[in-house]
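Methods — Computational structure assignment.
A single polypeptide chain was analysed. Its primary sequence is given first, followed by the predicted tertiary structure written as structure tokens.
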Amino acid sequence: MKYKRILLKLSGEALMGERQYGIDPQRLKEYAQEIKEVVAKNIEVAIVIGGGNIFRGVAGELNGMDRVQGDHMGMLATCINGLALQSALEDEGLQTRLQTAIEIKEIAEPYIKRKANRHLEKGRVVIFGAGTGNPYFTTDTAAVLRAIEINADAILKGTRVDGIYTSDPEKDKNATKFHSITFKDVIEKGLKVMDMTAFTLSEENELPIIVFDMNKTGNLLKLLSGEQIGTVVNNQ
């Protein structure tokens, strides 16, 4: 296997499946089965999940809400998604831990780096909730930060698109896909991969990002087995 320890970044919207909002139990089950296959190969898996299927702080701000208040609501949304994913993973027989950047000790552990590493070493899937615990920072930034802290080999950003394209492939039929691209080229071409704070943090720490289609069955394991899946972003 190419990677020993990964940080899987999932969007909250991905959990909606075909719904308009909320959580699709079938999509959760599919993700849990994909992750189970990876854990069976002795790959250590940590996960950061967004909350956009429930609430976005930015959306709240646009509607007149205080941004900090809105972001705190978004953090709680990621915890709800984390609990749902934890339940789905445990239904598949996996051992899990949910750690949160804001303390909710009745339902999750507080984030402690050493504890997270120990859980991963024992083969448990660790889900990081509540983003970084700070307003104005996205779950993309949280994913990169946690990946650096736990010494992950790569960030796998699971989306509904099978990589990075010259333009939005859902709108432009002539868009072409990059199999690999440098951080510098992504910035120069103005391509949307992650928010800039997350992206530059990943670049500075030489942590590769792989963007791939998480909704295609088997993609996660194929990628980790070395197949050409998605787009790799690195410094080379």
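Note: The two ends are 21 Å apart (CA to CA).
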